[in-house]
Design a protein that fits this description.
The protein is of the alpha/beta class and about 350 residues long. The chain has a single domain, classed as Rossmann fold, CATH 3.40.50.720. It is about 40% helix and about 15% strand. A 7-stranded parallel sheet has the order 3-2-1-4-5-6-11, sandwiched between helices. The protein has a two-stranded parallel ribbon with strand order 7-10. The chain is globular. About 50% of the residues are buried. The model has no long low-confidence stretch (mean pLDDT about 95). The structure holds nicotinamide-adenine-dinucleotide and uridine-5'-diphosphate. Uridine-5'-diphosphate (UDP) binds next to helix 7 and strand 8.
């Protein structure tokens, strides 16, 4: 099976490309490297001992996509390419609608021209908005669409578009995967998350504090209605997430009459910021100094997944622990203090 992976040089994409190569899939990546480095894919190929095809280009460019589909027959697309910084999306909504929504429409149109109708889309738990405590854990049927940022709205709009496409053309095989909080790195320490500038997300920030790049973690809010007052999320190891994509492709390959799959990919376990700090200190042997500061605007107190649907349908389960997530993040961070620029 030949898979086109958009955004394959990015954090989740690079780990997924590695799993795909290891499982015997042929892989073509399209990436414009707006938030990634080609070094990630060099390392992926070295780890896999196999090569992939790389096209440097933008998913908003129809000619690039048509050229990709004109090559060896593509059986399925995994669509990671997009922008993901929630705060930036508030400041620059048009950039996000252009990249995430128009980029996806362009991709789906190119797929129609090429008669490729299997697609796995990177959605996000942010489509659930601000869930009430009684809505936890979040099921796929929990309400969506009351979103708090253009980023989340862009994911929700694409989800709707994919559902409408499937209604009109039920032979499409579509998976909308709602990721919870991906963290961690490949256990080799060779590939991992490579944020540019100051990390917005918790785990890369903690790891930069642990290695001395930043003096202290600011914990956003200590008075949430959670077990220790700090925000609760469902952290999932990026390798579990990557394996979830492979399982999804295998599932869709056995749906000859089409399908529209909507799945939460999480562990089902909520961990607080302080839980993560303590686990990171234990896994790394480093101290992570922190201070509790004001809540971050737009943050929700807690959300975590009910991921039994994915377990039942895909026969997939997130199996790596919070300790694994921290130990693997630390191995990557310690060996690559400047990310891929360290090389
Ligand atoms: P990432 O930024 O590391 O990877 C995205 C990749 O897409 C990058 O390599 C970037 O260069 C590329 N890209 C962006 N716009 C492009 C375009 N127009 N044309 C071609 N390439 C383009 O992000 P990630 O963490 O790997 O996330 C992958 C996907 O998963 C994104 O769609 C993101 O919104 C979604 N997602 C991520 C998270 C998370 O916390 N990491 C959570 C939920 C959903
Ligand atoms: N967080 C924090 N300090 C940071 C970054 C994040 O306290 O420097 C908290 C944040 O308030 C949330 C949790 O860590 O409770 C996860 O935040 P992240 O941005 O990683 O994910 P998201 O909020 O998108 O789920």
């Amino acid at each position: 099976m030949h898979v086109l992976v958009t955004g394959g040089a990015g954090y989740i994409g690079s780990h997924t490309c590695l799993c795909l190569l290891e499982e015997g899939f042929s892989v073509t990546v399209i990436d414009n490297f707006c938030n990634s480095s080609p070094e990630a894919l060099r390392r992926v190929q070295a780890l896999a001992g196999r090569s992939l095809t790389l096209i440097k280009g933008d998913v908003r460019d129809a000619a690039t996509l048509d050229a990709a589909f004109a090559g060896p027959r593509i059986d399925a697309v995994i669509h990671f390419a997009g922008l993901k910084a929630v705060g930036e999306s508030v400041a620059e909504p048009m950039l996000y609608y252009d990249n995430n929504v128009a980029g996806t429409f362009n991709l789906l149109q190119a797929m129609q021209r090429a008669k490729v109708s299997t697609v796995v889309f990177s959605s996000s738990a942010t489509v659930y908005g601000d869930p009430a405590p009684e809505d936890l854990p979040l099921e796929e049927t929990s309400p969506t669409g009351i979103t708090h940022s253009p980023y989340a709205t862009s994911k929700w709009m694409v989800e709707r578009c994919l559902a409408d496409l499937h209604t009109a053309q039920p032979q499409w095989r579509i998976a909308r995967l709602r990721y919870f909080n991906p963290v961690g790195a490949h256990p080799s320490g060779r590939i991992g998350e490579n944020p540019s500038g100051t990390p917005n997300n918790l785990m890369p920030f903690i790891s930069q504090v642990a290695c001395g790049t930043r003096p202290m973690l600011s914990i956003f809010g200590g008075d949430y209605p959670t077990h220790d007052g700090t925000g609760v999320r469902d952290y999932i190891h990026v390798m579990d997430l990557a394996e979830g994509h492979v399982a999804t492709l295998k599932y869709l390959a056995n749906r000859p009459n089409g399908d529209l799959l909507t799945l939460n990919l999480g562990t089902g376990q909520g961990c607080s910021v302080l839980d993560v700090v303590k686990a990171f200190e234990a896994a790394s042997g480093q101290t992570v100094p922190y201070q509790i500061v004001a809540r971050r605007p737009g943050d929700v107190p807690a959300y975590y997944a009910d991921s039994t649907q994915a377990q039942e349908l895909l026969h997939w389960k997130a199996k790596r622990t919070l300790h694994d997530m921290c130990a693997d993040t630390w191995r990557w961070q310690a060996a690559n203090p400047k990310g891929y620029a360290s090389e």
